[in-house]
């Protein structure tokens, strides 16, 4: 059975690429769009108060198949998630992205001058297309002027240690479905940390659990992942984790043993497994 979170199909309408694979009343080709605002909520239903179950960042592509009440129903290119995005947050697809934001967050300015008015605050891994340069600034289509040192060419990830990237989010508020530097959830933190290190990974904890290489608890090291039912954390060393969690309502550092005991006492149970990302650095524990 295909995962509905990742399948652009409903009983009445489906992506034409799924014809013969899923049943639907009709099939259409999606219209390609991209996110035109610093962030865009991907919602469960076409309403501003509907649950946000994912979040898109500036420049990410979105395939639109239906529009209703000011919301577009489609699929995110970066992680395949399906949902509703406000039409106002989308624009026609431009030139391919040349760079991504390589710092936790940065402003785009209205002119190549730090005294000019900020046009928006952009989070780590947002995608931009540079169209001009002046001094230390680079102009990104649809956004404004960035300090170019805050950007990295696509495919040349500056970060090599996902655990270090995750530490940059320390104190960021917990936000269900979030992926931005101003608020994110546990799997969003993992996804963002790995993306900054050059690895595309799935969105949700169950997807990530299946995606990564299984390891034994005794072999754990910095950069590895520990999973519970519905939760994931990144190891800073064999005995310490960093995670976005609803207990602290923030990204926090916590002793592993204390987290295991606390989560077990809350009725969730003990860890379900340990996983290793391909970009994990050599052990420093």
TrEMBL record:
Q: Which GO terms describe its molecular function?
A: cysteine-type peptidase activity
Tell me yes or no: is Transmembrane helix among this UniProt entry's keywords.
no
Note the Gene3D superfamilies from the entry. endopeptidase domain like (from Nostoc punctiforme), SH3 Domains
Query: Pfam families annotated for this entry?
Result: NLPC_P60, SH3_16
Q: Which intervals hold domain NlpC/P60?
A: 153-285
Recorded hits in InterPro entries, A to Z, give: NLP_P60_dom, Papain-like_cys_pep_sf, PG_Endopeptidase_C40, SH3_16
**Range of residues in the leader sequence:** none
Record key words, sorted: Hydrolase, Protease, Thiol protease
Note the superkingdom of the native organism: Bacteria
Give the UniProt record's GO annotations in the biological process aspect: proteolysis
Say which family it is in.
Belongs to the peptidase C40 family.
Q: What is this protein called?
A: Hydrolase Nlp/P60
- Source species: Caulobacter flavus
């Amino acid at each position: 059975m295909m995962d509905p979170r990742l399948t652009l199909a409903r009983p009445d309408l489906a992506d034409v690429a799924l014809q013969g694979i899923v049943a639907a009343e009709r099939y259409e080709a999606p219209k390609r769009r991209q996110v035109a605002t610093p962030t865009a909520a991907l919602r469960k239903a076409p309403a501003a108060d509907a649950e946000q179950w994912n979040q898109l960042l500036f420049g990410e592509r979105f395939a639109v198949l239906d529009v209703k009440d000011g919301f577009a129903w489609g699929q995110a290119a970066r992680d395949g998630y399906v949902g509703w995005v406000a039409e106002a947050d989308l624009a026609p697809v431009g030139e391919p992205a040349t760079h991504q934001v390589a710092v936790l967050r940065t402003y785009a300015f209205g002119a190549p001058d730090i005294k000019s008015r900020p046009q928006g605050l952009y989070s780590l891994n947002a995608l931009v297309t540079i169209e001009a340069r002046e001094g230390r600034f680079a102009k990104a289509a649809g956004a404004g002027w960035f300090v170019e040192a805050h950007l990295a060419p696509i495919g040349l990830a500056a970060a090599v240690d996902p655990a270090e990237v995750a530490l940059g989010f320390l104190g960021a508020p917990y936000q269900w479905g979030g992926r931005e530097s101003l608020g994110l959830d546990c799997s969003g933190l993992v996804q963002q940390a790995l993306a900054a290190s050059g690895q595309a990974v799935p969105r949700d904890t169950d997807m990530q659990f299946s995606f990564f290489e299984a390891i034994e608890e005794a072999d754990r090291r910095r950069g590895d992942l520990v999973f519970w039912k519905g939760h994931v954390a990144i190891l800073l060393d064999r005995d310490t984790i960093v995670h976005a969690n609803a207990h602290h309502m923030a990204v926090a550092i916590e002793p592993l043993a204390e987290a295991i005991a606390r989560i077990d006492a809350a009725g969730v149970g003990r860890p379900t497994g340990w996983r290793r990302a391909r970009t994990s650095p050599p052990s420093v524990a």
